User: Which sequence fits this backbone?
C-alpha cells in the first residue's frame, strides 16, 4: 500500500492497519491488481536477467570467443612464471618468498625488488580485468592504457633498481607482446561483432 492509501479508492489507511479489506471500499488489499504487480515483477526480473546475460556475453566475447583471445588471456599469467627466473641480480619471486619465510634475507636490501614484483602482479591483474571488457566501445584504448602504465612502471622500477636479470627481460618481452595481442584481438572482436 503506497503511502498508506488504498490502491482502489485512495482512502487513507493507518500505518498500523493490518486487516485484509479496505475499511472504505472493502476491496482485498493483498490481491488488488495482483496480476499486474506480478507482471511488473516479471518484467523487472527479465530486465535484470538481460543485464546479467549482456555482462556475461561481453566477458565471453572479450576473453574466450576465439583462439587468439584465449592465447592473450593465458599470456597475462606468464609474468608470474617469468618472475621465477632471477629478476634483479639473483632475486626471483621464489627466492624472495623463501628468503622471507626462512628469515634468511635482509628485508631492507630487497624492498625495491619486492615492490617491483608486487606491482607486476597488481598491475597485471588490472590489465587482465581491463581485457575482460575488450569488446566494449573503448576496450582497445583502455587495454592499451593499462598495458602502457604497467610497462612504464615496470621499466622505471627496473632502471631504478638496476642489475636486471633474465626474468626481468622476459617479462618486458611479454609486456611488449601484450600490445601486439591487444591489436590483433581488437580486430578479431570487431570481426565477430560484424
Assistant:
Amino acid at each position: 500500500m503506497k503511502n498508506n492509501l488504498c490502491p482502489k479508492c485512495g482512502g487513507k489507511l493507518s500505518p498500523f492497519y493490518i486487516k485484509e479489506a479496505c475499511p472504505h471500499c472493502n476491496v482485498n488489499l493483498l490481491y488488488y491488481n495482483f496480476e499486474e504487480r506480478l507482471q511488473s515483477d516479471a518484467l523487472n526480473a527479465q530486465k535484470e536477467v538481460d543485464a546479467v546475460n549482456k555482462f556475461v556475453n561481453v566477458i565471453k566475447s572479450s576473453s574466450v570467443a576465439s583462439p587468439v583471445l584465449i592465447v592473450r588471456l593465458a599470456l597475462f599469467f606468464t609474468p608470474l612464471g617469468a618472475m621465477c627466473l632471477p629478476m634483479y641480480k639473483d632475486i626471483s619471486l621464489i627466492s624472495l618468498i623463501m628468503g622471507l619465510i626462512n628469515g634468511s634475507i635482509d628485508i631492507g636490501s630487497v624492498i625495491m625488488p619486492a615492490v617491483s614484483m608486487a606491482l607486476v602482479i597488481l598491475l597485471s591483474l588490472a590489465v587482465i580485468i581491463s581485457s575482460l571488457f575488450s569488446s566494449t566501445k573503448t576496450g582497445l584504448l583502455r587495454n592499451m592504457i593499462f598495458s602502457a602504465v604497467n610497462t612504464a612502471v615496470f621499466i622505471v622500477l627496473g632502471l631504478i633498481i638496476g642489475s636486471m636479470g633474465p626474468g626481468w627481460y622476459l617479462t618486458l618481452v611479454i609486456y611488449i607482446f601484450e600490445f601486439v595481442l591487444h591489436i590483433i584481438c581488437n580486430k578479431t572482436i570487431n570481426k565477430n561483432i560484424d
User: Anything to note?
Assistant: The chain has a mean pLDDT of 87.
